[in-house]
Amino acid sequence: MSSVKRGNLASEEMSSQVRLRLLPSARCLFDEPIQVKVSGLRSRQVVALRARSTDERGVVFSSSATYRADGSGKIDLVSDPSLSGSYVGVEPMGLLWSMRPDTLHKKFQIKNSLNPHVVRFSVHEEEGEGRMLAEATNERILIGDGVIRRPVKEGNIRGVLFTPPGRGPFPAVLELYILGGALSEKRASLLASRGFVVLSVVAYGHDDMPRNIKELHLDYFEEAIQFLKKQDKVGSKGVGVLTISKTGDVALSIASYLPDVEATVWINGCCANTALPLYYKKSQILPALMFDLSKMIPTESGANMVKNVLHNPLAEENKATLVPIEQAKGRFLFAAAEDDLNWDTKAYMDEMVERLKHHGKENFESVSYPGAGHYLEPPYGPYCPSSFHWLACKAVLWGGGAQSHAAAEVHLWKKIQEFFRAHLSVDAAQTIAKL
């Protein structure tokens, strides 16, 4: 037998002993961390760990990191550092958040909560063609066991209602997703899996709704709040409101003009009403702060810089667009990414904090994240540096760095849940009466 053949046999024997484990389980919620462990390697062997997934549109996302086994041939991503690749250092969930699309400027997309995020992890030899030594699949579900998902088409409301298992009572949250004309269920389904009744609604483009709109009406969201409050397991006297980006200013207006809003989470939005004029009871209450798309700056990546296209909301001629949050009776959680390249989120947050202080208000808390970009979502999804922008109709840069952004998502997701639990007062008697 030649030395080459002996080497191949030795390699085959070695690979059959290599084991890749995902703990505590290969099936978990999208927002839950897992522990990736490898055993059966040679002492101090260097290998590549890879992750690969395909989103709803068929776009492939992947990552790779180089690790060195310890003296007993083991690797544990909780304690061992990546030496090179998609990220470096000790990052237990790095293979997930560092995944990149095989096509430029694509955002990872799973909008339907019934579709799991399936990730294939694998271990490969570092030398040669990187022969695979072991693999394991992680099914990251968006909707927890026992959560009821019900499409809603009642009155003017179009969306999806998520209800946790058990009798409750549960706090209620209205989750808004407006621009882009499609419903995204990820935040809502995961929050419901954590013990909230959540109604996710859109303003256009879903089901039989108009495909385009020229104005927004608060009456629609008022109807959604009343629908949500009537649900059997809802125990909170009022509701929470959760949203991001353009819809952030809609959430501010809901909190400022409508009753029954106890807690509002604003993520990377604006302090003024943007893009579309806002109406209530057939009268315009806020004009729209507009954009100058000629200020877009192309970059070598093929994506555009749009941070400075929005007109200044603090300029005298634009102050009528500012949302009067000082008249809100509920509480606010403001979250700003300091490297948001969509617009100047941190400055908008600072303006709102100062305005509330000026009016003697203490009904808010704020948090900012250095190195984070625009799309702060539930944690452990692939970081998105650039993708298509609904208003610009082109790919744009969202800002941030993958590592800092991922850490911000973990912190913020926990903070959102704590904020809603602290400020959505639950009345058990009220729920029993409904039942």
How do the helices and strands line up, and which of them pair or pack?
Blueprint: H1 3-17, E1 19-23, E2 27-29, E3 35-39, E4 46-54, E5 60-68, E6 75-76, E7 84-85, H2 94-97, E8 100-101, E9 117-125, E10 132-141, E11 148-154, E12 157-163, E13 170-176, H3 186-193, E14 197-201, E15 216-217, H4 218-229, E16 234-244, H5 247-257, E17 261-267, E18 278-280, E19 283-286, E20 297-298, E21 304-305, E22 331-337, H6 345-358, E23 364-369, E24 386-389, E25 394-397, H7 402-423, H8 428-434
Parallel strand pairs: 2-10, 13-14, 13-16, 15-18, 16-17, 17-22, 22-23
Antiparallel strand pairs: 1-3, 3-6, 4-5, 4-9, 5-7, 5-8, 9-10, 11-12, 12-14, 18-19, 20-21, 24-25
Active site: 245 (charge relay system), 340 (charge relay system), 374 (charge relay system)
Protein name: Acyl-coenzyme A thioesterase 5-like
GO molecular function: fatty acyl-CoA hydrolase activity
